[in-house]
Amino acid sequence: MTPRWFPDEMPMPAASAETVGWWEAAADHRLVVQRCTACGTTRHPPGPVCPRCRSATSEWATLPGTGHVYTYTVVRQAFIPSLRDRIPYVVIAVDLDGAGGARLVSNLVDADPGEVTVGMPVEVVWEDMGPELAVPRFRPAPAPADRETR
Ligand SMILES: [Zn+2]
Q: pTM (2 decimals)?
């Protein structure tokens, strides 16, 4: 079991025919992005048709799990009662390395909310919310120049 940052009472994501492959990869702790097999354009959230070329064929490209904060907000209100002792927490939009510009909305964890900045390097950490559900969160990472070659 992975570390836990959020309570069991968090609203569960609803997988659709388009997103089930993404959630299956997440359950295996693999961060993926949907890539059009006709033109190579990536997209997130997953969808049935490429927004660039209208092809309905796609594949899941595995990402390294690193990126940087595109934007963020600090949440100071407990929108469900069990979040009362978890606030403040940080919601981030992550520019994912290798994702062709696709971004993912997630949370910054293992960091003081006051230290988040636009452009902050982050890396994925997984939170198992149940036997078949893992949610990607992100923690501060070394700057890309300091990272080992992957
Ligand atoms: Zn396409």
A: 0.91
